[in-house]
Amino acid sequence: MKDFQSYITRKEKEFGDKFDPSDLALHFVKYYESGERIEIKTAYGEVKRGRIGITTGWKPVFLLMSRRNTIGSSETLSRHDKVLRTICA
Fold first, then answer.
1. Cα 38 vs. chain centroid, distance in angstroms?
2. What distance in Å separates the CA atoms of residue 62 and residue 87, rounded to the nearest whole number?
3. What is the distance between the alpha carbons of residues 1 and 64, in angstroms, rounded to a whole number?
């Protein structure tokens, strides 16, 4: 289980005043923390599944990672993307 507030605190220490979490869509926080697999509907109407991760850097965004071992080419998420349901594993 991940702790979102610990992540924010860590990044604020790392990047100082440059750190900007404003692009993190807060409705994804509970899925980031729990690691649950979810199904989302993108702003473009596509339905996709995966787990939530976060990009690195001073202006992070949430990612939808299709598999646990996904590296690169993940879907970036915004406040316009909606969670449809959690998927039981």
1. 11
2. 18
3. 17
Identify the bridge partners of residue 70 per DSSP, sorted by sequence position: none
Domain residue ranges in the chain: 4-87
Q: In a structure prediction context, what are the per-residue pLDDT tens digits for the chain, which is 89 residues long?
A: 689 999 999 999 999 999 999 999 999 999 999 999 999 999 999 999 999 999 989 999 999 998 766 666 678 999 999 999 999 76
Any idea which fold 4-87 has?
A: SH3 type barrels. (2.30.30)
Using DSSP's 3-state secondary structure scheme, residue 41 falls into strand
* Pair type for strands 62-65 and 47-54: antiparallel
